[in-house]
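Notebook entry, structure prediction.
Reason for the run: the old model in the group folder had no record of what sequence produced it. Starting over properly, with the input documented here first.
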Amino acid sequence: MKAEELLEILSVAEKLKCITRHSDTSSGRRESVAEHSWRLSLMALLLQEECPDTDILKVLKMCIIHDLGEAFTGDIA
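New structure, fully documented this time:
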């Protein structure tokens, strides 16, 4: 991947920090899409022992990119 392409993807992904979801954090504020993706990835890591035959790298990749489209569309409830 060219450096320009990599930087463009990272620029798009950075927008997820500013897009809020239709759900709240435990403190009552709106959660960002980036926070949601991070927490989902952490949950996958913590639960990997429960599913030992699962390809954890594939699951983590899915967790990280599953909401990337929301950088363009916003959160869809």
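Summary: The chain has a mean pLDDT of 93.
The old model has been moved to the deprecated folder.
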